[in-house]
Amino acid sequence: MQTEIVVIGSGVAATALITKILAERPNTSITVLEAGGKIKLRDWALFQNYLITNKLPFDNQNIYDSCHDLSYPDRDKPGENKFEGDTEIPMVGARAFLYGGSTVHWGGWSFRLKPEDFQLRTSLKNKGIAPGDVIDWPFGYEEMEPYYHEAEHFIGVSGDSEDTTTPRSGKYPFPAFPFTLEDGLFIDAFKKFTEPVSYSHLPIARYGDTHANNSHGPCHTTGLCKYCPFGARFAAANNLDDLVQSARYPHLQILTNAIADEILMDSKTHATGVKYLNQKNGAWETIHANIIINAAGAIEGAKLLQRSALDRWKNGIGNDYDLVGRFLITHPYFFYKAVLPANPQMLQPEMGFPTLVSRYYDSPAEQHKGKFILVNPPSSPKVNLARSMSNGKTRDEIIKSIQTNTTVQLQGLIEVFSDRRNRVVNSEKKNRFGMRETKIDFYKSGDFDNRMKEVEAITKTIFGHMNAVDPGIENAISWRADHAACTTRMSNSPEEGVVNPDLKVHGTSNIYMCSNAVFSSLGAVNPTLTLTALSLRLGSHLLNQLKA
Amino acid sequence: MSKYNLEARYFVLENLRKLDDTLLDTLWQLFVRICKFWQTTETPEAMKSDFLIFISNRIEMDIRYLAEYVNYGDVIQELTDELGEEAAFQKLFTDAAANITPAFTNLARAKQLVVNELIALNLSLGGFKTFGNPAIAQGVPINYPGYIGGMNRRDHTPYRKKAD
Lengths: 548, 164
What we know:
The structure holds two protein chains of two kinds.
Chain A lengths: L1 E7 L3 H13 L5 E4 L10 H10 L9 H4 L15 E4 L34 H7 L14 H15 L1 E3 L14 E2 L7 H9 L8 E2 L2 E2 L30 H10 L6 E4 L2 E8 L5 E8 L4 E12 L2 H10 L26 E8 L15 E3 L15 E2 L9 H6 L4 H10 L1 E8 L9 E8 L5 E7 L5 H18 L3 E10 L32 E3 L14 H20 L1
Parallel strand pairs in A: 1-2, 1-11, 2-8, 3-17, 4-5, 11-19
Antiparallel strand pairs in A: 4-7, 6-13, 9-10, 10-11, 12-15, 12-18, 13-14, 16-17
Helix pairs in contact in A: 1-7, 1-12, 5-12, 6-11
Chain B lengths: L10 H5 L5 H17 L10 H14 L2 H20 L1 H10 L11 H19 L40
Helix pairs in contact in B: 2-4, 2-6, 4-5, 4-6
């Protein structure tokens, strides 16, 4: 099989890239290899079933499990993948192996990085701190800004266009969701600090009928999500469907259950195609292409390079400096809670997603310690109205139970820095999809626990300003592999990273990485918007290449 | 002994027949009763088309729902004959015995697979908007983590928002 461009992976990165290229060159021949299968989306009956039962529609059919890593093995269960190091990165639930990738089950939080995030190494050095393995991005925020704007329109972000948290050249496509009444508790508490803690509307992707480029209507269901009450979420699978079903793009094809195993090369610099396992017929097949786009995510993307072209690259493509798979970063996600002894306003979470975020501690002043954000989360309501009614409680009884007290929560993400020891590599063992399992090494930095004590002290002060009592930890910190990044990080030189500023693998002429793997550092916020912006930027680069 | 207290046997086979207009109306009356009992809305008619789609979708997803709806019709008829209409719904909404697990009586099946589902539907369609004591001006939870409907709302905020 021959194609102009082969894209490995079908997530948001691939979808944004393909959409951009086809918009300008609709006859481009593009083939997407997706390791997973396809599940049913946008089914109103399934949505209603979720509303009534609170169960994801595919729970009983094991489809959720069929799209995800299993837990790590222990003596009682075989599990998947292998963990080493001192801080576990749970893989289960972090990735979705299916048509459309992980946006089929994401929260939609769509932050921009802040300008200082592109200069982490410089910032640390200016503070007199040894930067260790940390590097700067090879370009600054101003380079990314137009692509951030384009990305916000591509995935349909609702946000506050007057928010000065990050400089912007244009408005969000949709206005921000107003703060909830419950958000007011936190806002009032933020104002009580000697230097008031700033806050803003959380930008969130709400892709629906009102989107100018949308031809498929709202999402309704993805099958894997905790559904949003608006029935509208950006899911790359829906946008892929639009492209595939359009008569305008006759040379686009998406092969599901196609597991990319090796990138093939005819010289050390030039790739010729991809060898993959066709799970549908069990056959090994090859697709030849002029351009190879590795959009398989920060874990699988790095592993594919490591196992490719070993006759020309001893440790895998782009890996002469043993950097591929290293510098793994993800986001520790923390949860704190406290209790309001009385609740006369009957405050309960009223939305399936948050509307308030504080990036006050996601600032240059905090950068050397690890920036973090605080979110008033969409936690479950204390009193479940439906359950109370079903249990025979009367209206008055329910009202009384809501007014008695309530739990308030603060959640957040915190930035950690690159460490060469942290990495992903291929295991010899294959999982049930037929993919090589992953061995992960991860070590948290020595000062991490102290930093979390600082975070906890700040949250306790906030709760204190709210007159909430019994502050504590809701759950242990989750290290969240769903934000895994930096495993083939971007750099000006091959001694520091794996891809160049155009996302092309150093030392090759036609292999590009397009995933969180290329982040030079991760910042304190969710990576999807930045990844989408990078994909659109790569699209511009490739269009220029194709014109040439 | 009342039939609704009998163990449900060969449940699907005995009840698998077409849902007719009479039974559909019986189900709609249940929905209206839910609105009234918990004072969730004074205008249930506005939710009727969503209600009808819901019933249709439940059956389409799982044909056994036909039997559940038929069973509900039989149970409410028998309860009404025995207790009168008001007391019949009172029992259906508040009798703890109807929530036994597993739901092996006809009453329990009617409660858990029909009544409880329509309660959740009622809330998700907007019943939450008026839930609460109207006398407490700020105390009304106008939303519920169910379905709000719509995509990006510019003109209407379907939850309690912080005053500017």
